[in-house]
Design goal:
It is globular and about 40 Å long. The protein is of the alpha/beta class. It has one domain: Glutaredoxin, CATH 3.40.30. The strands form two sheets. The chain has a six-stranded mixed β-sheet. A two-stranded antiparallel ribbon has the order 2-3. α2 links the parallel β4 and β5. The chain is built from five helices and eight strands, in the order αββββαβαβαββα.
Length: 168
């Protein structure tokens, strides 16, 4: 029994190591445009944000790491918004009530968009929660980050600053 447990744990660690290699991916090409309803009461179209660095953060209320990073994302949003940065949280749940409930518990100042049919998350090939995509001020994909562990916000901050500098 102990041997079986050891083999299972070893397999899990190997799989986790393999997926860690794919956690950070540089992206190229134009970001696909979309329009989604926001929690601020209006629709937001990605192409309207051309000229700004945009972070799309795909999340779900049932996702523990998503909950953990939300306050940190809000801090980044507030800190860099005036410099030309926009953060859009994209909730992927079919029922927006779960998202709204979480936002009462963990309020954020950035817009949260609702993707109840997963159309946008499928368009961006989101495979993990959370997933973060960076788009440069010319509307091109730049970076994909899958998952969240404490400290990842430092990577986000570095990317945001790099992309903002490239816009000027």
């Amino acid at each position: 029994m102990k041997r079986l447990l050891f083999v299972i744990c070893l397999s899990f660690l190997t799989a986790a190591g393999a997926s860690a290699k794919e956690k950070h991916v540089d992206l190229k090409g134009p970001a696909k445009d979309f329009t989604l309803k926001s929690n601020k009461g209006k629709n937001i179209q990605l192409s309207d944000l051309r000229g700004r660095v945009v972070m799309l953060n795909f999340w779900a209320s049932w996702c523990g790491p998503c909950r953990q990073e939300m306050p940190l994302l809000d801090q980044l949003s507030q800190r860099y918004e005036a410099a030309g940065f926009t953060l859009l949280g994209v909730n992927v749940e079919a029922d927006q009530k779960a998202a709204d409930s979480l936002l009462k518990e963990i309020p954020v100042s950035f817009p949260v968009l609702y993707d109840p049919t997963s159309k946008v998350s499928e368009m961006y090939k989101v495979e993990a929660m959370p997933s973060t995509i960076m788009i440069d001020c010319d509307g091109n994909l730049n970076y994909l980050h899958r998952g969240y562990v404490p400290g990842d916000e430092k990577i986000y901050k570095k990317k945001i600053k790099e992309l903002i500098r490239a816009c000027k």
